[in-house]
Design a protein that fits this description.
With 490 residues, the chain is of the alpha/beta class. Helix content is 38%, strand content 20%. The strands form five sheets. It has a six-stranded parallel beta sheet, with helices on both faces. The protein has a five-stranded mixed beta barrel with strand order 15-16-17-19-18. Helix 1 packs across helix 2, helix 2 packs across helix 6 and helix 13 runs parallel beside helix 14. It is globular, with a radius of gyration of 24 Å. The protein binds 5'-deoxyadenosine and iron/sulfur cluster. Iron/sulfur cluster (SF4) binds next to helix 7. Keywords: 4Fe-4S, Cytoplasm, Iron, Iron-sulfur, Metal-binding, S-adenosyl-L-methionine, Transferase, tRNA processing.
Length: 490
């Protein structure tokens, strides 16, 4: 359903009756209740209420925040970047410790705003909230938080907000609603895309891989795929609304569809998405190397719409560590896979994730990682310092690598990655590429910024009318991570 259809359904809700049973209808009911409350509030205050949503972490969270903003806007909140808002929400990430620390810091700073505006509602959601220790700490030390919910019940936001604002406005009691897991995927709730012309699309939720260092399977629950019909319908609706590029999202898209009643492979899903008229570009992430099929490579190679870009997390080049990490591939398997992909799609851009300082990592292990980086020559790589996540098997390991050693290896890796990226971008200078224009350059209003199919950023002289359009640009100069270009008139 599109935004207007949902809006119509919401307007028809009769709030004198008890809430209806089906989950989406139930939420429309609470949105309606809050809309009417908002009308009153606006009159009383002489201004609309505002909401500030901050997102930490990955593309999944970014997509979840679009759903949150969709619900808030339908209720009638006005979005703002200022935390002096009537509703402030942090959609949190817990993949690495740093992200957690940032949230605590920001929460501390909110205290002064809440003093000024005692009716301010502070809400927390996302992966951090799925950890009991985190919720306990917030209950103890951050009493100004009003609502906490998790990764499995984002769709309940209107219901929780209604409980807070309409049923017990004076209560200081924190509303906490965290689920351990769910098999439910609630369709047809409003969402507000950040960009009008491109969007993320969830194709599955959760992860079953339990890589030894990773907390995601614990906070995002077991893998569940959306029905292909629902995915296609959502994308068709987006395309009607002006979207030309989609990013299919899942922790491990290569195992998409295995748990459906009528199993569908990821490659088959891609073939169906490709057929959607008006859609120009398809991207996806993340691919686990152990599940990347020949069928997928074949579909990518012959596709006109799937971008020639693949994010293929390596994590480590050491077979010994990969085994310990529970990754189910060896260094040689990985290199063989890359070779196979490059043979089928020679101009593909490859990116990766690498962890430095995994417990027990020796200089020899690290050299293996550098070796893979040199052999694969990634277009770019996200490099992470290992972060100990309580509750994961790796956190219990005793041979944690000293910080100074990790730092020194991290710097060496980064230098290598950057050298290779710079060399690779140099190669395409002079070529003409199709780019999707995304925004005005933040530093120079005469420049527009877009992305090539291989996901490189290009800045070029142009005007705002081009936003959301695919245009041809000659890459004039490489700047390491991005290009300066000039438009070629078709
Ligand atoms: N420490 C450091 N990096 C991690 N990642 C996941 N868990 C950890 C951790 N405990 C990285 C992996 C993954 C990316 C999203 O985050 O490289 O691919
Ligand atoms: Fe974490 Fe591994 Fe799942 Fe990725 S595949 S989310 S690294 S457990």
């Amino acid at each position: 359903m599109d935004y207007l259809e949902i809006e119509e359904k919401v307007a028809k809700m009769d709030i004198t009756l008890p809430p209806p049973e089906p989950e989406a209808d139930r939420q429309y009911y609470f949105i309606r209740k809050l809309q009417l409350w908002m009308e009153e509030k606006k009159k009383e205050l002489g201004r609309p209420l505002t909401a500030c949503i901050t997102t930490f972490g990955c593309q999944m969270n970014a997509r979840d925040s679009e759903k949150i903003i969709g619900i808030m806007e339908m209720i009638g909140y006005e979005m703002t970047d200022s935390e002096e808002a009537d509703f402030v929400l942090y959609n949190t990430c817990t993949v690495r410790e740093n992200a957690n620390l940032k949230v605590y810091g920001r929460l501390g700073q909110l205290k002064k705003y809440k003093k000024k505006n005692p009716h301010m509602v502070i809400a927390l959601c996302g992966c951090m909230m799925q950890e009991k220790v985190v919720v306990d700490k917030i209950k103890q030390s951050y009493r100004n938080v009003d609502i906490i919910f998790g990764t499995h019940n984002i769709f309940k936001l209107a219901e929780l907000l209604s409980l807070k604002l309409l049923d017990r406005p004076e209560s200081k009691k924190m509303i906490i609603d965290i689920w351990d897991g769910t098999t439910e995927v609630v369709e047809d709730l409003p969402n507000e895309r950040k960009y009008s012309f491109k969007s993320g699309v969830n194709i599955m939720f959760g992860c079953n891989n339990f890589c030894s260092y990773c907390i995601v399977p614990y906070v995002r629950g077991r893998e569940r795929s959306r029905e292909p019909e629902d995915i296609i319908a959502e994308i068709e609706c987006m395309v009607k609304d002006g979207v030309v590029e989609v990013m299919l999202l899942g922790q491990n898209v290569n195992s998409y569809g295995k748990t459906l009643e009528h199993p569908v492979s990821f490659a088959q899903l891609l073939e169906r998405v490709e057929k959607i008229e008006g859609l120009e570009r398809i991207r996806f992430m993340t691919s686990h190397p152990k599940d990347l099929s020949d069928e997928l490579i074949e579909v990518m190679a012959k596709s006109q719409k799937i971008c020639k870009q693949l994010h293929l997390p390596l994590q480590s080049g050491s077979t010994r560590l990969l085994k310990d990490m529970n990754r189910h591939y060896t260094k040689e398997d990985y290199l063989f896979l890359v070779e196979k992909i490059r043979r089928a799609i020679p101009d593909i851009a490859l990116t990766t994730d690498i962890i430095v300082g995994y417990p027990g990592e020796t200089e020899q292990d690290f050299e293996e990682t550098l070796d893979v980086v040199r052999k694969v020559e990634y277009d770019s790589a996200f490099t992470f310092i290992y972060s100990k996540r309580t509750g994961t098997p790796a956190a219990a390991k005793e041979d944690q690598v000293p910080q100074n050693v990790v730092k020194e290896r991290f710097d060496r890796l980064l230098e290598l990655v950057q050298d290779i990226s710079a060399k690779k971008t140099q190669k395409d200078v002079g070529t003409i590429q199709q780019i999707l224009v995304e925004e005005q350059n933040q530093h120079d209003a005469n420049l527009m910024t877009g992305r090539t199919g291989r996901n490189y950023l290009v800045h070029f002289p142009g005007n705002k009318d081009l936003i959301g359009k695919l245009v041809s640009v000659r890459l004039v100069e490489s700047k390491g991570f991005y290009y300066m270009g000039e438009r070629i008139e078709e």
